[in-house]
Structures are given as C-alpha cells and as structure tokens.
Design brief:
Blueprint: H1 2-7, H2 16-35, H3 40-48, H4 57-69, H5 73-77, H6 82-96, H7 100-110, H8 121-145, H9 159-163, H10 169-176, H11 185-233, E1 235-236, E2 241-242, H12 248-262, H13 270-283, E3 288-290, H14 291-296, H15 302-308, H16 321-329, H17 338-341, E4 349-351, H18 352-369
Antiparallel strand pairs: 1-2, 3-4
Helix pairs in contact: 2-4, 2-6, 3-6, 3-7, 7-8, 7-18, 10-11, 12-18, 13-18
C-alpha cells in the first residue's frame, strides 16, 4: 500500500531510507494490533477515511510511533502527515490479512462505510486496490463454503470405485521382477512392502478427499435448508416471537443478530441479498430511514434491545455502527458523536434493509473477534 500511495501521488518521499522508515512504522503497528485484534476495526475505519481528523485516537498513535521510528518525519510530511499515516495503517492491514479471519474482518469493516466516503480520483484508485487485495483473499473461501458439489473426483465410494482393484498387479509384478541384490529376501521384502504401502496410501487419500467433499456439500445443503426455513417461518429464535410483531428498530437489529447466528464467518455476496430480501418480505416495504431517526427510536425499546445486544466498552477511537448503536442503548454516547466516532453523518439516509445488512456485518465482526 505504501507503493500505491506513492504511485498515486498521495505521498511524496525523497529517498529510499524514508520508505524504510514508513515500513518500520507499519511493522510496529502490526505488532501492536496482533496483541489486541479488537483494534483492527478502529484502524480500518481510520485508514480508509480521507477526512479523518488529526485529533483521532488512531492518528495520534501513529504519530507517537513516528517519534520513535522516524523522529524527523515532519521535515518530509510538513503540515500534512495524515496521508503518510493512512498509508502506514493500510500497509499494516494488508500484511495482517494473511490471516483469513483478519482479512474477513477488514473486508466486513470496509464494505458498507466506503460507499458513503468521498475520495479524490487518486485516493479512489489506492483505496480500490486495498479493498480488492482483501476481497481476493475472501471470495474463493466464501464461495467454497456455500458450494454443493455434484461430482466426486477419483471416486472410490461409488459402485465403480468399490469394484476397482486397490492394489495394482503391475506394481507388485514390477517389484517381484526387480533385482534381488544378494539373492536373499532382505532386499526383496522392503520393495514389496513399499509397493503395497504406496497403493494403500493412495487409496486412503482418494477416500479421504471424497469424504471431505461429501461432508462439505452436506453442510452447505443443510445450511441453505435452515436459511429457507428461517426466512419462511419469519420467527426470531432469540426473541422467540414472529418478526412481524417487532417494532422497526428492534426488527432491524433482531434480523441482523439472528442471521449472524446462522451464517459462518466467511460468506459469499449472495448471503447479503438473501438477508435484504428477507427483510423486505417481512416488512412488505423498504423505506429509507435517516440515522438520527433510527437512533431516536431506540429509546423506547431499551429492555428488549439490551437482550439482543450486550453492553460493550466504548472505544477511544473509531468504532463500528453497531458499537455506536450499543453505546446509545446503554447511554454511554450521544448521537452528536457519530461523525467523530464512526465517520458518517447522522443525517445519512439508508434503506432499512441496507441498514440491517450493515448491522449484520458488524455482528459478524463481533463473532470473529469472539465478542459474542
């Protein structure tokens, strides 16, 4: 990501040692995040925001690291260190994304809010590269988890496979006709043992592979069946009542939480559309709602919402929309802090199904981090 920021003229360096200092700063950030992975969300939201303020907690932390790794950084960054800091943050996140669960966390953290941020043309290229890098790590795994495979390669569990001879006669014959060495069985027996072992191991590997394919297909089919049942019944397992009886803010949050309980960490894009379709089918509408109005409607449903969303500590820096909502429910934060804490305006208008999907992604992040 450092090279991407350089290539797109978002930052300017005068020599290679300066680039090495940025890399060193990024490495220090990687170490810190590995000690507390719950901070990934805060750094993701700070790193992608082109309007992140200088007083933001994550920005100030990188400045503190700069003081150790690059004491003279202000001579290069001058009055605009934030692009350099964002480049460092995103570079660290790409390195951390070698862990598939962290890559998933980063992807879920960015996919909703990024639609509501305004980038310059050069910034958009760099941020798109960042998101694409993360997405390419997630997509193959996501598709595989929901795929039902109809063909089994090298099948040994089919009728044809059962009839197939596991130990090839030609393999044994070759061993029998090979050099006896000194004319004793000492050199002959190991060859026979090796030939049998090779054949049996190959058969075992084929069976194991096919059983894994069958197992994953059964799991995918079972999950899809359960999702259809959930959508058709329109019943909240957590609240133990039909969704149609729930008031709008409770319904939106309940759908997000219940759906997350069914969905694995990593999932394909179709999962989002299934949730939105479920929401629209239950409500028979998909009106837009301004975030301020959504937050105000939480007040009268405090008892049921605390059952859905347990209390969480408030981050000093950036936080998810879900965490901000939880902060409001427990009276730990005010609506006026939304832009500083999440990076979006309280006057933002969203389709209710889109809001539910956003909250679902945040619940998934909680699940990955082990909060739920």
């Amino acid at each position: 990501m450092l090279q991407s920021f350089l290539k797109n003229n978002l930052i300017t360096l005068t020599d290679d040692p300066q680039l090495e200092k940025l890399k060193k700063t990024s490495q220090e950030l990687v170490k810190r995040i590995k000690k507390d992975k719950s901070r990934i969300y805060s750094f993701v939201l700070a790193g992608i925001d082109p309007n992140i303020p200088a007083g933001n907690h994550e920005i100030k932390e990188i400045k503190e690291i700069f003081e150790k790794t690059w004491p003279t950084y202000t001579a290069v960054t001058r009055e605009t260190p934030i692009p350099f800091i964002r480049a460092v943050i995103l570079h660290a996140l790409v390195e951390l994304s070698s862990d598939i669960n962290i890559a998933d966390l980063i992807y879920l953290s960015t996919r909703n809010i990024i639609q509501h941020l305004t980038f310059s043309p050069h910034e958009e290229v760099a941020i798109s590269e960042f998101v694409s890098t993360i997405s390419l790590k997630i997509s193959p795994v996501a598709d595989d988890k929901f795929r039902i495979r109809y063909t089994i390669k090298n099948s040994l569990i089919s009728i044809e496979g059962i009839r197939k001879t596991l130990i090839e006669e030609t393999v044994i014959k070759k061993a029998l006709e090979s050099d006896y060495g000194d004319g004793t069985l000492i050199t002959f027996i190991p060859k026979v043992v090796k030939s049998y072992t090779t054949a049996i191991n190959r058969a075992h590997l084929d069976i194991s592979t096919n059983l894994e394919i069958v197992s994953s297909s059964i799991n995918a089919l079972g999950l899809k069946t359960e999702l259809i049942w959930w959508k058709t019944s329109a019943y909240s397992p957590l609240l133990k009542q039909p969704y149609k009886l729930l008031a709008p803010p409770v319904l939106d949050i309940a759908l997000a939480v219940d759906y997350s309980d069914l969905i694995p960490f990593i999932f394909p894009e179709s999962v989002n559309y299934f949730l939105m379709a479920t929401h629209e089918e239950i409500t028979s509408e998909n009106d837009s709602i301004i975030l301020t109005d959504f937050f105000k409607s939480l007040d009268v449903h405090g008892d049921i919402l605390t059952h859905l969303l347990p209390e969480q500590p408030i981050s000093n820096g950036r936080m998810s929309l879900l965490d901000f909502t939880i902060g409001l429910i427990y009276n730990k934060i005010s609506v006026s802090e939304l832009e500083a804490k999440v990076g979006i305006s309280s006057e933002l208008s969203l389709k209710r199904s889109a809001l539910t999907t956003w909250l679902f992604h945040d619940v998934q992040c909680h699940k990955i981090l082990g909060v739920r």
